[in-house]
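Structure in, sequence out. Go:
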């Protein structure tokens, strides 16, 4: 019976695995964060830096995580435990890394769903309202009595209300719970198999449309032409930080999905495809967003973009282009799909960890995790209204202004994720051993970028992660989006 149970926890095909893992990787990070980071850090030069990092560090960590999962058939906690169990001393302590990897998705899931809820609201708003209410030149009196653009006012009023954002958040969570409750094959795999191809068709269609709008050329140049003068150390740090987030690394997700992979599928080629997917979608998202934003608001609009980019600036853009309402609805549907497939991966990871550690059924684990996410998510939503004075990280000077969502995001992205990834590197290099690990990945055969993998894991990944940790915790301000939120 145990064997049969395990069978239903495997993806049925290689493409099923690739689409599910890509579904996790392609998310809000690709569509919202990547384009404005690229715009801010010199366009083409950022793209180039990102690509180099993706082909080296990103590749190494993605291989590492999927491999750990497949070797053990377990989620992060169980996998770390298996490897560290018979070790002693310092090596045994590395086993704790599994818990950090498992903690991250528990924190990320609730606030990711809050943003997913905002996206649902915007689909309804664009479909139901005349698009002109979002136009750039419509101003209203804001909450503080000054003039603000109607689009910005709409957004701030929405998130500062209580009932609507709570409803949208719970709706989003409900959809996820329904998908995951149908299991790995019928739920997660099928969901991704339908949504990911749709997402790609939509993103390419909007890209083509946006790149042919009058005035798009300036934005295209801005996005694609490398501006060497803007290259700095920060470009590299920003690119690496974005990369880890974008590939869903250090969240236990790729370990868990790796565990669901069939042993006969070629892990190396899967990882290549996932990496390609994720980078391609990020690139297209830039093509879809930057040209219209630049032609509409100039370079400043792109450079100063933060969280408001998709919720404030994009609706203004849609109000100014032909067929804007339709394009807008399709755009937000696409964002919704990207967010939902990522959130499903977080939920699945949480459930897997809960099942294994608490020794309960999938159904009970689903209930536990959904309850946790609903509770934390509701508190996060209220962080914009009833609890807007709460500053969870007020004791850290440069985090003093962060509301609940920003604080959770900071905690994960800037602290826990780099730490978790350092543990994964240590696990592979010190506990498992690179030789044994590479042999296992290639299932005995040599593979093409094995040298790159070993070199990165041994020499570069951990120091770079340490740098990211130092920079993002305030040694140097490399999280400008936190300031603009
Ligand atoms: N990779 C996702 C993105 O780009 C972020 C994410 C990571 C979401 C892990 C879910 C799980 O948005």
């Amino acid at each position: 019976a145990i064997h049969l149970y395990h069978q239903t926890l495997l993806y049925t095909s290689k493409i099923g695995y690739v689409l599910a893992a890509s579904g996790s990787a392609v998310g809000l990070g690709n569509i919202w964060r990547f384009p404005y980071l690229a715009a801010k850090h010199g366009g083409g030069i950022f793209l180039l830096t990102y690509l180099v990092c993706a082909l080296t560090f990103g590749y190494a960590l993605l291989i590492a995580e999927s491999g750990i999962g497949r070797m053990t058939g377990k989620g992060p906690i169980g996998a770390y435990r298996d490897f560290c169990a018979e070790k002693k001393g310092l090596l045994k302590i590395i086993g704790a890394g599994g818990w950090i990897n498992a903690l991250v998705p528990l924190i990320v899931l609730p606030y990711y769903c809050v943003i997913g809820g905002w996206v649902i609201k915007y689909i309804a708003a664009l479909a139901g309202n005349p698009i002109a209410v979002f136009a750039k030149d419509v101003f209203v009196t804001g909450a503080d009595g000054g003039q603000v653009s109607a689009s910005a006012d709409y957004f701030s009023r929405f998130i500062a209300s209580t009932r609507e954002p709570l409803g949208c958040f719970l709706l989003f969570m409900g959809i996820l719970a329904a998908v995951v409750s149908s299991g790995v094959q019928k739920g997660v795999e099928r969901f991704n198999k339908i949504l990911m191809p749709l997402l790609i068709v939509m993103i390419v269609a909007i890209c083509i449309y946006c790149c042919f709008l009058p005035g798009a050329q300036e934005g295209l140049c801005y996005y694609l032409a490398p501006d060497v003068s803007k290259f700095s150390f920060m470009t590299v740090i920003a690119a690496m930080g974005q990369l880890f987030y974008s590939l869903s690394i250090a969240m236990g997700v790729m370990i868990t999905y790796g565990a669901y992979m069939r042993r006969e599928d070629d892990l190396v080629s899967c990882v290549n495809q996932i990496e390609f997917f994720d980078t391609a979608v990020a690139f297209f998202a830039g093509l879809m967003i930057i040209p219209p934003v630049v032609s509409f608001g100039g370079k400043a609009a792109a450079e100063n973009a933060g969280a408001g980019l998709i919720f404030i600036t994009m609706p203004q853009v849609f109000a100014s282009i032909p067929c804007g309402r339709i394009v807008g609805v399709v755009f937000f549907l696409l964002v919704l799909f990207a967010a939902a497939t990522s959130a499903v991966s977080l939920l699945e990871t949480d459930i897997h960890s809960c099942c294994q550690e608490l020794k309960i059924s999938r159904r009970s684990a689903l209930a536990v995790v959904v309850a946790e996410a609903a509770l934390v998510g509701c508190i996060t939503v209220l962080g914009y209204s009833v609890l807007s004075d709460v500053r969870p990280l007020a004791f850290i000077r440069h985090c003093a202004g962060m509301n609940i969502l920003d604080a959770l995001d900071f905690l994960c992205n800037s602290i826990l994720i780099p730490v978790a990834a350092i543990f994964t590197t240590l696990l592979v290099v010190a506990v498992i051993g690179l030789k044994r690990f590479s042999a296992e990945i290639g299932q005995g055969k040599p593979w093409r970028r094995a040298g790159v993998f070993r070199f990165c894991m041994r020499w570069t990944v951990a120091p770079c992660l340490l740098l990211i940790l130092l920079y993002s915790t305030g040694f140097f301000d490399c999280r400008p989006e936190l300031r603009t939120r």
